[in-house]
Amino acid sequence: MLRFAGRHVPKLLAVLAGLLYALAFRFLFNTGPFERFGGLLMVSFLVVVPFGLGILTAHYTSASRGSAWRYAFAPWISTTLFVLTAFITQLEGAICLIIILPLFFVVSCLGGQLYAFLERRRKNKPDDYVLVSAVALLPFVVAFAESRFATPDSIRRVENVVTIAAPPAVVWQHIVWVPPITPADLGPSLVDDIGFPRPVEATLTHEGVGGVRHATFERGVEFIETVDEWIPERKLSFSIKPNTATIPPTTFDEHVIVGGRFFDVLRGTYELQPLPNGHTRLVLYSQQRLSTNLNPYAGLWTDYVMSEIQRRIMQVVKRRCEAPATASAISSL
């Protein structure tokens, strides 16, 4: 047993080196000047740190291990341990950890591959002190360069379309005021599993421009939607503001707060297009602001989440609009 355990000590030390490296920079980037310039959403943390994790893990993994283990699997194990540690100790919420996990996997593997390339060129392992110093300094160097530039804003549009077997007059009634939605109405979705609240209902103070919709979600999340375009049975458009007074601080991770520093939902629009067969083509699109130094990657996730939320709401509207027609068709048989 001791012999078996002894054989695995070098592997354990290798993955622990990567784990401790990532944890150390997680704390550093969440405080002081780093946090002011974007913190854990800086490229220097999201890209450079997992890159260094991959290099360190590969360096301390025994050369007797196969190349696949040393330069890919070992960095992945370090990454997985980092994510699990952050989740168990509640350093980060599940939403953020799921978002960064694929990026950390890819970049840590690239770090391992770069180390393999450097090692082959040198024909031996680099000096421990030199390597560790270089890897430790790299995030600071990149962070300094990154802090010299303003965080870019990206305005993104997400659109969903559904065809409903009902005329625009019926569909219109179901979008200006959305009665309570149950979890069974929505069905299962990954966005629920990673912690996003489900939509509950939408009310309207009065019809026409200036009317205010209150779109509520689970766990106290509410959006105030002020109508600025009202064309009955054709178009409903509104600005969106999160009601921060009703949203508990524990509902969202600080990095994905709607209306916060990094992400906001700005507008929503329904368009109803009548079809020749009496059906309606319903289009729902929204605009979001994304403000990170890694907007292309973060946008993949925000686009998916917004699209999934909109898709589920539209499916509820579709079923409700088609229910009377379905019942009538059945009774006529």
What does this structure look like?
- The chain is an alpha+beta fold and 333 residues long.
- The chain folds into two domains: 2-146, no CATH class; 154-331, Alpha-D-Glucose-1,6-Bisphosphate, Chain A, domain 4.
- Helices cover 53% and strands 19% of the residues.
- It contains ten helices and seven strands.
- Strands 1-7-6-5-4-3-2 form a seven-stranded antiparallel beta sheet, with helices on one face.
- Strand 2 (199-204) and strand 3 (212-217) form a beta hairpin.
- Helix 1 runs antiparallel to helix 3.
- It is elongated.
- It starts with a helix and ends with a helix.
- Mean pLDDT is 86; it is low at 1-6 and 326-333.
- Keywords: Membrane, Transmembrane, Transmembrane helix.
- This is Polyketide cyclase.
- The chain crosses the membrane at residues 12-31, 37-56, 68-88, 94-117, 129-145.
- InterPro entries: START-like_dom_sf.
- It comes from Solirubrum puertoriconensis.
**Measured distance between first and last alpha carbons:** 74 Å
**CATH level 3 topology of the largest domain:** Alpha-D-Glucose-1,6-Bisphosphate, Chain A, domain 4
Structural class: alpha+beta
Series of H and E elements? HHHHHHEHHHEEEEEEH
How many independent structural domains? 2
Protein name: Polyketide cyclase
Transmembrane segments: 12-31, 37-56, 68-88, 94-117, 129-145
Organism: Solirubrum puertoriconensis
InterPro entries: START-like_dom_sf (IPR023393)
In brief, what are we looking at here?
With 333 residues, this protein is of the alpha+beta class. Helices cover 53% and strands 19% of the residues.
